[in-house]
Amino acid sequence: MNDLHHFIYKIDKSKSLRESMEDYKDSRAVIRNWALNSNIEDKNITRLARLMLAEELKHHKFYAEVEKDGRFVRKWDQNPIVHPLPFKDTGYATVAVQQM
User: Fold this and answer.
1) Residues contacting 40, CB < 8 A, separation 6+
2) End-to-end Cα, the chain, rounded Å
3) How far is CA 54 from CA 13, 51, 57, 66, in A?
4) Among 10, 41, 59, 95, which residue's Cβ finds the most Cβ atoms within 10 Å?
C-alpha cells in the first residue's frame, strides 16, 4: 500500500495565548501582502490562506528522491509546511505527510 499517506498536524504547545494571538494577527498581514503581490482581489482571509497554501504546495517537497537498488524511491524528508493561518489559541501549525 504505497499510496496511503498520513498527514501529521503539529502545534507548539509551549506558546502562550498572547504569542499565539500575535502569530494570528501577523499572519493576516502576511496573507494580505501575498494576495496584493499576486494580484488577487479577494478579501476573505480564509480563502486567501487556502490559495496561498495551494500555491506553496505546488512547489513544496515532502519527500527526497533517493536511489535504492538501481531505482529511485521516495524517502520521507521530514520537511513540513507551515500552515499560513494559525489558530488564535495555538499559533502556527506545521503539516507533514508521511507515506505509510
Assistant:
1) 48, 51
2) 7
3) 26, 5, 5, 26
4) 95
pTM of this structure: 0.73
Q: Is the Cβ–Cβ distance between 66 and 73 less than 8 Å? A: yes
Cβ(54)–Cβ(85) below 8 Å = no
* Contacting residues for 56 by C-beta, under 8 A, at least 6 apart: 81, 84
Measure the CA–CA gap between 80 and 61, rounded to whole angstroms: 9
Residue pair 64/40 in contact by the 8 Å Cβ criterion: no
